[in-house]
């Protein structure tokens, strides 16, 4: 039996360097990040040249069209850099590198990069309809180039780069069931209004229905006229002190069971499904880092080992269900919030082992300029 495994391939414009990666999504396990391993095929004409490799995190925090008078709203962080050829020392090969080295011959050289544990996750902020250029967000790419040293200026004809993503998957275990109770009393009025909100679980997968169990106990002399239930996405651009904002990605406004008169109680379940399809073309909505020709979705919740590990060039994404009761012009409002986690389940990698008789299914990418490649 012959097993197939997928390989991503890209050449430099002069066809002297060919980059191979086994995958483009690298998982952040909170305690550490999967190593980025691949191989590069070097043309025999370049035997006397030095080849260097880098993992670059590109953080764009402003629109390209606003870059005037020398302003630049992009920071490129070189998270890993080392010499690939001539190899400084012998390294242990992964199964992918071993198979590709045997298939591609002696001109094939392996490389492995390690990302820091606190490197920011791949996140894209959705541009507006009229926005042009690269969207704001955090993007990663592997870059190989010919030079005399690691800091040498690379030439496009002898440079190859491929976009990758740093992703997180949902924990295997559910956390505590979210529940909150808020109360409001009124000046010169006896009694209080009580709002209890409970979610059916803490962890949801993208596309899953969120059930909010709402219980309202009106022990005041006010009347609840309607309620609104929302899923809010919180975005924190850590670089800016005031870079936090919220967007409603799903909502239901209802008067069913209202008005709730003094002394009455109402209990009901409201279902919400936050989807990107309901938020198309809304500027500022956070999306999972996007690779060209791939569909994306709302950004997953950012998990941190501790709040101190927030990278200055990262974007932190969170979600919460917010329930708001409207009591009229004089009564005001009563709100309750419950945070929850929205992520992708961990994919099942069983059956994807690389066997000795495996064949590579190669997906090639055309060589654009380095700037355009960041979008791929």
TrEMBL record:
Gene Ontology molecular function terms on file: G protein-coupled receptor binding
InterPro entries in alphabetical order: Arrestin, Arrestin-like_C, Arrestin-like_N, Arrestin_C-like, Arrestin_CS, Arrestin_N, Ig_E-set
PROSITE patterns listed in its UniProt record: ARRESTINS
Entry keyword Ribosomal protein: no
Entry annotated with the keyword Lipoprotein: no
Source organism, top-level taxon: Eukaryota
Record's keyword terms, sorted: Sensory transduction, Vision
Gene3D superfamilies: 2.60.40.640, 2.60.40.840
Gene Ontology biological process terms in this record: G protein-coupled receptor internalization; negative regulation of phospholipase C-activating phototransduction signaling pathway; photoreceptor cell maintenance; sensory perception of smell; signal transduction; visual perception
Pfam families attached to this UniProt entry: Arrestin_C, Arrestin_N
One Gene Ontology cellular component annotation held by this UniProt entry: rhabdomere
Arrestin C-terminal-like domain mapped to chain residues: 189-347
Family: Belongs to the arrestin family.
PANTHER family: ARRESTIN (PTHR11792), PHOSRESTIN-2 (PTHR11792:SF16)
Protein name: Phosrestin-2
Organism annotation: Zophobas morio
